[in-house]
Amino acid sequence: MRVRIKKSEYRDLAECISSDQVPSEDIVEYFKDKKFKKFYENIYINPYARPEETGSGVQGEGIE
């Protein structure tokens, strides 16, 4: 089932998703709408989040 979301409903739906009011299986369906997914990622995913660092240890701890 492909879900089409009206642009006027983007913000309300995104608020519900970000406040855990929408079941995960429904979120998967909503994110099949690429325009909504892009809107959600641009507004609701923290743009300041640091990507996970790769490496075997914390720099400067002397782990060998």
Order of helices and strands: HHH
Largest sheet: none
Please report the distance between the alpha carbons of the first and last residues.
52 Å
Q: Which range best describes the helical content: under 10%, 10-25%, 25-40%, 40-55%, 55-70% or over 70%?
A: 40-55%
Could you report the average pLDDT, rounded to the nearest whole number? Answer: 82
Q: Count the helices. How many?
A: 3
User: Per DSSP, what share of the residues sits in E-state strands of 2 or more residues?
Assistant: under 5%
Description of the structure:
- The chain is mostly helical.
- The protein has a domain at 7-44.
- The chain is built from three helices and no strands.
- It has helices at residues 10-18, 24-30, 34-44.
- Helix 1 packs across helix 3.
- It is globular and about 35 Å long.
- The model has no long low-confidence stretch (mean pLDDT 82).
Task: Give the topology, please.
Blueprint (H helix, E strand, L loop, with lengths): L9 H9 L5 H7 L3 H11 L20
Helix pairs in contact: 1-3
